[in-house]
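re: ur question from earlier - yeah i can do the single chain one, its not a big deal. heres the input i used so u can compare w yours
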Amino acid sequence: MRRLYDWVLSFADRPGGSWALFGFSFTESSFFPVPPDPLLIALSLGNPKRAFWFATVCALGSVLGGLAGYAIGWGIWQLVDQFFYAFVPGVTPEAFVNVQQLYDRYDFWAIFTAGFTPIPYKVFTLSAGVFSISLPIFLFASTISRSARFFMVAGLIYAFGPSIQSFIDRYFNLLAWLFLILLVGGFVVIRFLVG
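and the output i got, formated as tokens:
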């Protein structure tokens, strides 16, 4: 995971970093395991005046990627489900059953929560298509939650500058474990709400 994280970060020092940010944001919404936040942070630190532009690129890529995930779930899921179950972290038949129960009661809030928190957003984009969730609800919840998440990151960088980057580099392993705990905790909370 650390090598993958470092590879994503390497695009901050290359020409076309904004395009890479868009690409990672897009693919993370349906299958890529590393969130785009590290690259968003690195690009924003390199040019703090453009932090909110990078957040816009990130949000746009993520929402369009979410639409692609929705389309995969809606149109070709039966052809690709085994690939996703085998190779995409967080995408399991059990996760889909749990998400379907959430959709039955809280479609907007389930998508919003997944878009803003470490809960795997890709599970919700794919399953929204599989379960034919209202596309306007899906788009509205995704746009608000993903934009809020990335603009919050950009705002922190704009306000605190390089100290955020050194904190992430110094405590990456701790942050990764906290992310895992939040992820598991998110599913426990969802399970509690469903039960």
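The chain has one domain: 2-194. not sure if urs matches, ping me
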